[in-house]
Structure formats: structure tokens, C-alpha cells
């Protein structure tokens, strides 16, 4: 037990050994990092496009948002189930050997969905086609695994890399829906899905071509399952609760803007939350993380989630937008610190699997949060529904404190 406590104490405070010399510029002076980052960003952008594109395409063709929502929910559930299995194959056989054929399957699934909608195929074909997109590799996880391999002896630099990756996630989820809306509205309903599929394929080809930075595969893992690694199950629970914050906030904000007669502005308001998180992530990554506890980040997120609730009571959309901008600033530091803990606690030869499990937790939380937030917005009131993301953030804090309090107290 003392050894586990010591390990938890070291993990719960992300130390700054390794330095931050050169910051982000130093990261991209490493050979091959610019190329694989460019490819990964191209491949990651469609992650923020696919759901919006599918909803617009299906609802416009079939006249049913219920059908569109059910199809996208099916794809989300399939992705959550397939992700860890696919990541385990990546750890065992290498990124290029697994991610490339998986990307091709995903692209074919998107194209099949496009054709089924265009040619008015039966509804069940939409579900089958969109389920094929579950083969999409965890692009962010693949990139983080490369940084973990390149910077395995430099925890300070790895912290900066993780912060950059989280900021990239926020940027893609901020720009993706905007690009999808522009394409589907300006050209034709299938334009968003088609462009997303082409970006995914082109980006993954560029990313996977950088073989020099690819982590070596481990055909037979020597480490335990990530779920059996100390601290990982509790982190998975925190990721799930954090996902509920994201899912509920999105649905509740759309409902609130709709109630105010400004539904078209909901996307821009939510983009401000992502912008706040992106900016905070970049600033956080440029600083030494010495002494930063995961529970502190969770507490900051829970505290700031009170702001949207308070702003909603003013019935002012600009006030809500400002509150979401500030509230988003706690998201990236929380995710960066959590992902660093996952990297430390997961066996090195099963790192992709461990990070994919966290993504599964996030997706599960997003789905639950969306359902709960939607129910609250419909049966209570959009203003009252802002209590749902606040409650989810409080749950994440409670889970984090319950599992890491001893480590925090033991930390030097």
C-alpha cells in the first residue's frame, strides 16, 4: 500500500522535471513532428464535422430530426464499442498497419451513408452505413502516443505536447461544425460528409507516412489491461462525468438559444466555450505544471460551471456567451492533466488502448449528458437545465476527490 500511495502522489501532481525550454517551438523542431501534426490535424477536423453533416443531410432528405439523431447516436455507440478494440490492435501491430485499413473502412462507411441518403434507400441502411464509421481511428490518441514515445524521458515537454493536443481538439470541434454548416448550406447537403471523408483519408495518409516517429508495436503485451492499472478505472469514471458536462451543455445551450429566438446563434455561443478552452490549454501548456493537482482542475471546472447557470437567469444571450467563454477555460487544463495521468498509469505497450478507453468514457458521458440535458430542457426549463452540466462537473469532482485525496495529501 505505501508503494501505491507514493505512486499516486507522484501522479496526482504533474511535476515539471524536464523543463519547458523552448515551449511549443522546441516540440516542432523535433524531426518529423511538423509533418505528422499537420496530417493529424487534417484527419482530426472531420471529427467535428461528421455529426453535424449527417444530421443536416438526413433531416433535409427524410424530414426527420428524430431519424437523424438516432442514426448519429448509433454511430456514437458503435465508436465507443469499437475504439478500445481497434486501439489494442494498433498497440500490437503498429499505427500504419491498423489505422490505414481502418480509415478506409470508415471512409467507405461515410460514402455509403451519402449514397443511401442521396438515392433514398430504406432507413435501416442509414444505420448500417453510419455504423461503419466506427472504424475511424482515434486520431488524437495516435498523435498523443507519438509524443509520449518521442518525449518519454521529458515529462515537462510531454506536458506541453499534451496541452497542444488538447487545444487542437478544441480547435477542431470549434471549426468543424462551422465548416460543415457552411458546406451543407452553400453547396449541397452531402458536401459536408464528402469533404469530411476526403480530409480524413488525406490527413491519415500524411500522418501514417511519417514512420520515423511511429511508436514500435508490441506483438505480445507484457503489461496488464489498462482497466487493471492502478488509478485508471477512477480516471475513466472522471472522464465519463466530464463527457456528461460537454454533452449536456451543448443540448441545453441550443434549447436556451431557441427559447430566446436565436437558435442560429447557438453554434457561435458554443464555439466561444471551445475558444476559451483552447486558449487556456495553450497557456497551461506553456507553463511548468509543477504542483498542479487533478482535483484542483476538477474543482475549477465545477466552480466555473456555475457561471452559465447564473448568466442564463439574466435571459441575455451575450451574457451567456461570456460565461461560456470563461467556463471553458477550466476544460483544457483538466483534460491535459487527466490525459497525462493516463499516460503515466497505463503500461507503455498498451498506451493507445488506455487513451481510447478514456475516449470511450467521454463518448458515453456525452451521450448520457445529451439525453439528460435534453430531458431537463424539455420538461423543466432551459434556464433550470443548466443545473445538469453543473451537477455533472460536481460529480466529476467528487469522483476525483474520492480516489485521489490520499495521493494529494501524501504529495510533497
Structure keywords:
mainly alpha, disordered N terminus, Growth Hormone, Chain: A, 412 residues, two-stranded antiparallel ribbon
Topology:
Blueprint: H1 2-12, E1 13-14, H2 23-27, H3 33-44, H4 50-62, H5 65-93, H6 95-118, H7 123-131, H8 139-150, H9 155-186, H10 191-208, H11 232-259, H12 266-286, E2 292-293, H13 294-304, H14 306-312, H15 317-327, H16 331-345, H17 351-379, H18 382-385, H19 387-410
Antiparallel strand pairs: 1-2
Helix pairs in contact: 1-19, 3-10, 4-5, 4-6, 4-9, 4-10, 5-6, 5-7, 5-17, 6-7, 6-10, 8-9, 9-10, 9-12, 9-16, 11-12, 11-17, 11-19, 12-15, 12-16, 13-16, 13-19, 14-15
Description:
- The chain is mostly helical and 412 residues long.
- The chain folds into 2 domains: 1-22 and 229-412, MFS general substrate transporter like domains (Growth Hormone, Chain: A), CATH 1.20.1250.20; 31-220, MFS general substrate transporter like domains (Growth Hormone, Chain: A).
- 76% of the residues lie in helices and 1% in strands.
- The chain has 19 helices and 2 strands.
- The protein has helices at 2-12, 23-27, 33-44, 50-62, 65-93, 95-118, 123-131, 139-150, 155-186, 191-208, 232-259, 266-286, 294-304, 306-312, 317-327, 331-345, 351-379, 382-385, 387-410; strands at residues 13-14, 292-293.
- It has a two-stranded antiparallel sheet.
- Helix 1 (2-12) crosses helix 19, helix 9 packs antiparallel against helix 10 (191-208) and helix 11 packs antiparallel against helix 19.
- The longest helix has 32 residues, at 155-186.
- The chain is globular and about 55 Å long.
- It starts with a helix and ends with a helix.
- Residues 1-21 and 405-412 have low confidence and may be disordered.
